[in-house]
Every structure is written in structure tokens, then in C-alpha cells.
Queue: 2 jobs
Job 1
Amino acid sequence: MSWTRYVVLLLVVLGAASVVGQGPPGGPGGANRTPAHDWSADMAMKITEPFTLASVGDVIIVRPASQSTDPGVQGAIKLVRDADVGFGNFESLIRDENKFVGPLGGSMTGTREVAADLKAMGFTLMNRAGNHLMDAGVEGLFETTRLMEDVGLVYAGVGRNLIEHPSVSISCYLGRAARLANLDRHHTQMQVRFSSRLEGCPPGDMCIAVLARSGWHALGQRVGSLYFFVNKAYSQGSVTLRSADPAEEPLVDFRMLSDRRDLERLRAAFRFVADIAMAGELDGVRSTIFPTNYSDRVRKVSRPGLRNAMQMRVLAGMLGALPPLRSWLIDTLVTGGVTLADLLADDATLDAHLNKTVAGVWHPVGTCRMGTDPLAVTTPQGRVHGVQGLRVCDASVMPSIPCANTNITTIMVAERMADLIKQDAS
Ligand SMILES: Cc1cc2nc3c(=O)[nH]c(=O)nc-3n(C[C@H](O)[C@H](O)[C@H](O)COP(=O)(O)OP(=O)(O)OC[C@H]3O[C@@H](n4cnc5c(N)ncnc54)[C@H](O)[C@@H]3O)c2cc1C
């Protein structure tokens, strides 16, 4: 069977581009035109020597092609190899047949060897856009990207670098005097930054908030929480397409605590906060201390409504009237049997609890990261790489998550971008 059946290389552009000695913007007859935008001002790197860029349109390839004896294929490969930079749009998928778990996809799915072969063919950077991106589901999309990464091929990073502040809480049943008397007041009474001192992590990399109310209902009004999170988090998740249907919600995978540093710091913080909660000085303020658990059951009874309000009032009444049974009721009805003592006794049990109960703080950032490297989505001015006239101006341009809440940070990003847009216009 001919190699050309497997290889479709549409050579779109083979450009010899040189910015050396470039003429004035506007070109011939430019006197009456609006002066063209000087794009070189946006470039962090300026090319000062003549160079050759080979840009290949739809690279649809399912098995290694560089050893093909077809002269046409070899001729096209030579053009890419001889260029200074080889850029292509890889439209098919590849998978490791021994390990891949996921849908098999259509006829455009090749073997893992294709990745190394693309590199050998002279490609430096592979874009991933095409009709077949989702043929093998999200699993196939990630598998292809992973295999390309393994051989050092760079791809565009949209949807990667999703970062949040991972949080967990420890709660206490509050004595009457410690409860929030004025329910119109915000439940957060205090927020403090502290430092984990884990090597390589910046000062103020952790945060704790003290909440004098943990829910809208009668039980929530009797429960206070010490709510703590990793302020400088390193775990990265992703936002990707769930299907080719634009009406379907995307797949958001935070992968919180996947970075060892985040898990280690949250574990240490759990022990630190438990010590605070159990301190004798608080004996007059709280009684039962328990690990907070936003289980499906807790979520269900937390939905505002008359039925839940009544249920929670009954439970709150029982907890108030039967102090000796309080711990047992909380263990049975709230935490699902998980006690603070169990968690503090064993790191593995604690880690399992942290991984199960970790939640965000509504601070997602990073999926359109600014930068000048090939994985960056936007330039330091917020322009989308490779797209004219489009900027991103929100929390998604942050390259990493700040050691701070994200509202004012986002407002400052917006102020800066507004200045840049005004500068460009003037
Ligand atoms: C419940 C909650 C509590 C928070 N509390 C705090 C806090 O106490 N302190 C703090 O610092 N930060 C807090 N944050 C985080 C902070 O609000 C965000 O980091 C910040 O708003 C992010 O700004 P943004 O512009 O990136 O996104 P957003 O503020 O979400 O703005 C996105 C905008 O796009 C609009 N939009 C979406 N889709 C479309 C569409 N298809 N067409 C047109 N418009 C569209 C939306 O309506 C929205 O106005 C909280 C967030 C949440 C959700």
C-alpha cells in the first residue's frame, strides 16, 4: 500500500521571511493609508537574520512516515527539515496501544511512534486543531498531547494551567455566645495569611479564614469553621472540550493537590489548624470539633428550601438539647463516621480525606496564560498569540495564582490592559 495513503501533507506555506531591511509600513502607495500596526513592537524576540519557516496545514499521519520511499513525501519532508522552524497542524491522533484506556476513535488514530517521527521530520511546533480532535474522546486528545510532549514537541497551551486555591475546613459546634448574632453580617470574621516555610514556597503562601457561621440554616448558624487554603498553589488542571457540541459544558478538571507541594502544605496546615481548634483557650467558645465534609448528602440538605430548613432546625435542636449525644450525632449524620482523631492519627488516612474533601475558593485562574514561550496563550499585552485584534482581559491570563484573593488582582489586570489599549490607540 502506498505511503501516500497514510500521509497527507498539505504544504501551505513555505516562506522565506526576513525582517532584515524591511521597508516602511504600508508598502507601495501607503501614503494615503492608515499607518499599519508595528507588530514587531509586540514581539519579545526579534529575528535579525533571514530565516525559513515551513508551515504545513493538515498533518494527517497515522504511522511513521520519514522512512517512506515515496519521492513526493520525501520531497515535502525535506522542505520541513531544511527550514529553520517547522510548524504543522496535527489533525490526527496517536496513542500508546499498550496503555491507552479510552475510546478507540476513527481511522485517523496512529501509533505512539508517530510522535518521534514528527520530530525527525523536522517539526518544531505542532498545533492541535481539527475535525478529529475528539475522535477518541478527551482521553485521546490528552494522550496525543502527552506523547508529543514526551518527545519534546511543543503545542499551544489553551485550556491548560488551570489553577485554584485548594481548601479544606475544620468545624466546631459553637456555644451560644460565639454565634453570629446579626445574620446580616458577613460570615467571614477574619482572614490571615501565614507561611508554610516549605522549601521553595514564598512567604504568605497559606491562608486561613475564620467563619462564625457555616450555612444559612439553623444548624449552619451553630457551626463555626476554620477554613484554610494553599494561597500559592502549584497543581495544574485543565479545561477542555467534552464533545464537539458547542452547547455542551466543557470538562473542567482542577486536579487539586496533584502537585506534591500542595498536598504537603495542606496536610501540615490541617494539623496546625486542628491544634488551634483544640486549644484549651477556646473551651468556652466551642464544643465538638469535627472535620468538615461537603458530601453529596450535606450538599443536598444545604439547598435553600422549607423542607431542608425544617430538617436542619430539628437536627440543630437535638444537638442543642442533647450535649452528651452531640459528637455521636455529628459523626453519624454530618461527617459519615470520620473523626478528627482518626485523621490526626495517620498521614495516609489524612491524605485520603484531603483528596476527597478538597474544594476550590472560587479563584480559578491561568488557562489563557500570558507569556512569550510557545505554550503561552496570550502575549504580555494580553493579545492572543496568532490572532489579530483579540485580547483576553480576565483572571485567565494570570501565569500563576497570586498569594491573594483574585478579585482585586483581576481588576488590576483590567486597569493595566485598559492602559495598554489606550496607548495603542493614541
Ligand atoms: C462565589 C464567589 C465568591 C468570590 N469571592 C471573592 C472574594 O471574596 N474576594 C475575591 O478577591 N475574589 C472572590 N471571588 C473571585 C472573583 O470574583 C473572580 O476572581 C473575578 O471575578 C474573576 O474575574 P473575571 O473577569 O476573570 O471573570 P468574571 O468576573 O466571572 O467575569 C466574566 C464575565 O463574562 C460574562 N460572560 C460569560 N459568558 C459570556 C458570554 N458567552 N457572552 C458574554 N459575556 C459572558 C459573565 O457574565 C461575567 O460578567 C469570588 C468568586 C465567586 C464565584
Job 2
Amino acid sequence: MGTRRVLVTGCSSGIGLAVAARLANDELRRFKVVATMRDLGKRGPLEKAAGDSLNKTLEIKQLDVCCEASIRECVNSLPDRRVDVLVNNAGVGMIGPLECQSIDVMRELFDTNFFGLARLVKELLPDMKRRQSGHIVVMSSVMGIQGILFNDVYSASKFAVEGFCESLAVQALKFNIKTTLVEPGPVVTEFERKVYEDAEKMDLSGTDEETAKIFREVYLPYSKKIFASLGQTPEEVAEQTVKVITAEEPPLRHQTNRLYMPMTALKHADPTGRLPLDTFYKMTFKHDRVFNATLGVMRILQRMAGKK
Ligand SMILES: NC(=O)c1ccc[n+]([C@@H]2O[C@H](COP(=O)([O-])OP(=O)(O)OC[C@H]3O[C@@H](n4cnc5c(N)ncnc54)[C@H](OP(=O)(O)O)[C@@H]3O)[C@@H](O)[C@H]2O)c1
């Protein structure tokens, strides 16, 4: 296989930045990276991470996944419009009681997390079909498999992404185009900082006192503990993304965090949905000591496994 051109979205920070830098610095020089971001003013950290690869195996371009014109302009600027691998990574988060979130804000989240993917695929799929080759890699989440308390809208956007890709994958395969959903658990990035910052500022007057209390006193501390115990680095997720891109037979789904897998496995163990529902309910409201102890054990396992 020759050098492949990989277009990555959302490279100003976090996973996108790590994936772009990792691919550009690949020892075997297998990739030419088009690292994109909506605001080129934020290119500093990527330039630093790219190091010597900048303007050699990595070029930085503007692309806003919410703007069709910017997607087209970016793709048109590439020789033959060729993109061998799309890494659809740009995404935003949102947590909190549903009653405190406006429909407009929910729409904005879907515009980035779901319609952003749809726009990119619409632009690139016809070319990939003509060439009878390509790989669509999508940064989904474990929340695209299993919904989590107070993540209703974010989780819904990742379920949308999962359904879209699962359907598309069949048609794409007919044209020799591969599809992969990368499903990280918690990853310590700007994403985490931004959602907690928004949560602290959130006006909870739209919901009842009990819900507000559960969000503030149960969900937020638990969620922070989960990030501290199970959180991966963006570099770890990038390493696994590269494995997926270079696999001879890329999987449709790839979960990056082995420690999180028991949680997602519950879903498949009981088609009625009772098992994951009961488990998450009890973990949250009844057995907080067991939950905290489990996180403690996981933290130790994580350290012992060298954070694999
Ligand atoms: N962190 C986690 O725990 C976690 C877990 C599972 C999955 N994920 C997924 O991983 C992906 C990357 O998240 P991250 O953790 O790396 O978060 P991050 O550090 O906040 O990065 C998100 C990136 O998306 C970009 N972005 C947002 N809206 C955009 C738009 N309209 N057009 C182009 N770029 C846009 C951001 O750009 P700006 O700097 O301009 O905002 C930023 O570069 C997301 O899809 C997220 O859902 C994250």
C-alpha cells in the first residue's frame, strides 16, 4: 500500500490533534495528513506536536464541519480531491438535566456531532466509490452503545452516528470502502474540561430540587472519579486509531478502553435492556460504596496494565 492521504477533523486539541500528529510522525511514513480545524488561530499546539513533519507529512487546513462550503473548499484544494481515509473526529459534549437544555442547544450539538459526519461523508463518498477504495473512521463513544445518566442528548448524537455508520457500512463495502467506529470511554482532553465548566455554570432552576441535587451531588462527583480512574490519554486513543487504519481487515467497531468493556457488555447480555438499566441504577443510587470500591480496583488494574 502506498502513502495514504488522511483527512482528520477537529485537530485543534485532544484526540484529533493526537491522531494527526501520530500519523504525520509515523516511522514508516505511510501517511500524508490533512489536519483540519475550524479556527486556524488555534493551530499552535498542533504545529508544536507535529514538529518536523509540519508542511512535509502534515498540512493544516481550515474546515468547519457545520459549514458545507468550508468542507468543499478544503476537499477541492487537495490533488484530485483524493482522501483515502477520513477521520471524522470533531465533536462537542453536553451534560445536565434535560429540562435545563434548550432545543436550540441540542440542535447545535447534533449539527456538529451528527450532521458534521453526514456532510463529510456526502462530500467524500462519491469520490471513494469511483476509486473503489477508502476508509471512513468515525470517533464515536461508548455512549453510542450505552446511554449514561445526564448525557441524554450527547448519547443520542452518538447513537445517531452509530446507526448511520452501521447502515452505510453495507453499501460502502460493495465499493470496497471500509467503515470503522472508534469507541473511546473517558479520555482526558479539553472535552472533559469544557463539559464540567459548562456544568458548573449551568442554571439548574429549570429542574426540580431533587434532580438538581442528583446532578450536583451524585452525577458530577461520580463522573469526575470515572475520568480519574479510567480516563485514557488522547495519545492512547490515537495509537489505537492508527492500528484500526492500518489493519488489513478493519473492524466495524473498536472500543479503545478494555476496562470500560464490562459496562458495554451488559447491553448485549440482555436484549430486554433490564440488566444494564438495573445495574446503572443500583450503581448510581444504591451501592455507591461498591461503585467507589470498583473504581479503586480499576485504578489499580489500570496502573498495573500500564494504562493499556
Ligand atoms: N474526551 C472524551 O472523554 C471522549 C470520549 C469518547 C468520545 N469522544 C469523542 O472524541 C472526539 C474528540 O473529542 P476530544 O475529547 O478530543 O475533545 P476536544 O479536545 O474538545 O476536541 C474537539 C475538537 O472538535 C472541534 N470542533 C468542534 N466543533 C467543530 C466544528 N464545527 N468544526 C470543526 N471542528 C470542530 C474542536 O475545535 P474548537 O477548538 O474550535 O472547539 C476540537 O478541535 C469527539 O467526537 C468526542 O465526542 C471524546
